[in-house]
Amino acid sequence: MCDETTNHGCCEPNPPWEPPQVIPAQMRRVNNLIFRKINQFHRENGVENVTPMHDWIMSYLYWHKEEPVYQRDIEREFSITRSTVTNILQLMERKGYIERQSVPRDARLKRLVLTEEGALLHEKTMHSLHQTDEFVSGLLTPEENAELLRLLNKLREGLR
Fold this sequence. Notes:
Layout: H1 23-44, H2 52-63, H3 71-78, H4 82-94, E1 98-103, E2 106-114, H5 116-137, H6 142-159
Antiparallel strand pairs: 1-2
C-alpha cells in the first residue's frame, strides 16, 4: 500500500496519463518551438516561401562563390541523388535563385551560380536565423548557454 503523505517506494512517479519527461521528447518539443520562431522571423523578413533545402543550397553557393560549383558537388555535400538534385536545381532556376552557366572546356558541364535575388534571399534567411539564435540564447544566461552547447555537443558526439 502507498503512503500518500510521504510517497515512499510504491507510488508511480507520474500518473498514468502523464508521459515521462524523457530527453528525446523534450528535445523534440523544443526543436518544434524553435522552428516556429524561425518561421515567424522568416515571415517578418519576407522569406517564408524559401524551402530549407533551397536555402542550404543557396548558402553553399554563397560561401563557395569564388570556386566553381557543379551539380555533383551539391549531390555530394547534401547526400542526395542526382535526380533529386536535378529537380531541386530546376525549380531554383525557375524561381530565379540560381543560374546554370556553361563551362567553356565542357559543354555538358554547368556551373551553378547564385543570382542577385538568390543572394538577397540567402542574406534575409541568415538574418532570420540570427534573430532566432539571439532570441533563444537570450532566454538563458551566458553560463547556461555555454553549458547547453557543451551538453548538446556531448550528446551529438555520443550518438554518432
